[in-house]
Amino acid sequence: MLRGAFGPGRAAGGVRDAVRLLIGRRARLRWVHLILGGALAMPYFLVGSVIIGPATGSTDVFGSFPLQLASFGVGLPIAAVSSLFPTARPLEAANARWLCGVDTDRIASGPARTWGERVRTAAWFTLHLGIGGIIAGMSLALPPFAAVLIALPAFAWLGGTRLGLPEVFDHSWALALAPVAGVASLVALAGCAAGCGALLARWAPVLLGPTPEDRLAAAEARAAELAVRNRLARELHDSVGHALSAVGLQASAARRVLDADPEFVREALAAIEETTRRTVGELDAVLGVLREGDAPGTAPAPTLAADLDGLLRRTRAGGLRVTARVEADPEALPPLLSREAYRILQEGLSNALKHAGERVAVDVCVAAADGQLEITVENPLSGTPSSRPGGGHGLRGIADRVRLLGGTAAAGPTPDRTWRLHVNLPMKGPA
Length: 431
Prior knowledge:
By secondary structure, the protein is an alpha+beta fold. The chain is built from twelve helices and five strands. It has a five-stranded mixed sheet with strand order 1-2-3-5-4, covered by helices on one side. GO terms for molecular function: ATP binding; phosphorelay sensor kinase activity; protein dimerization activity.
């Protein structure tokens, strides 16, 4: 067991993980991000050198490492001030997403709107340029130095003094250790770059992440998108689902009485033609919303005022004996209420078509009383119910519509073996 835990395979895997951590794709991208920060820091470094030179009386700032560090330190506050502009945040956020590997939802994409967002952006920009400038300087200096150390033994025959090297390299042990020191410096550079890149990736969501207001706006946008999708799903289910159920039952009934009742067959075929024509128009209207860049379809949404009689006629053509009592004026209903009530009644009749059986009597009542529009659909549970795989979304769609309108709905069997759907919709209110 110990051999399996500490064997050659596990050791090789650990080496691969270490190499991936230091020079893997993510580490390389973060290194590029740091080098980019160093490049962005150069103009501010030059401005800092212009300030440090006269302040110290030096005419050669670049010849002194302490003065270079001072120039770099003076340039960073200038960089922080310049990043207070709103457009700095989207640019830095894009770099953090693409190069640091930070998840998109953890980084804000819009410009800074408040002073708090601007200050955090300035802190991030300063951190990016500061660490990036250090890593960029190391990336310029260490590789040539490491290359000299690695190649030094190959030129040992020339002699240390003849190469202008320190006298310590006159010793054989120093020449033997020079390549090791060169490789170690490269590993140290890769480790520093990987560590600094991971540090920036960790701080990016804190300094560039969305504020609570941004998260709330994103949640509201997502909720609005889901609401549109749910509404389209309801429309497709209620219109296309009802039409397919009705057409299937009408065709089945017409086939069975093809020779015995030609008049009924003609009515069923006419109803099939009318149903499919209307459904194609409704489908085009719904799909037009989904097509990006296309104008929505022009087919009007059906309402009680426009198509109540047609809905009842097409349902009767499917074999149901529908008795309807309309005690409300469909023309007086608000358009939204009339449209949603039509869909609710359509779904109730569709359920009767699918589950009540053939030649079953269905009672429909549409009435207005006390500021409420009442819709009732009743049918006996006796008979041979029609069945189809899937389904089960109709009552949930009715419940969604009723809830959005601020009404109530109840559906289920009654003690006298009758299925009853009863809906109350306020004629004024949340709709």
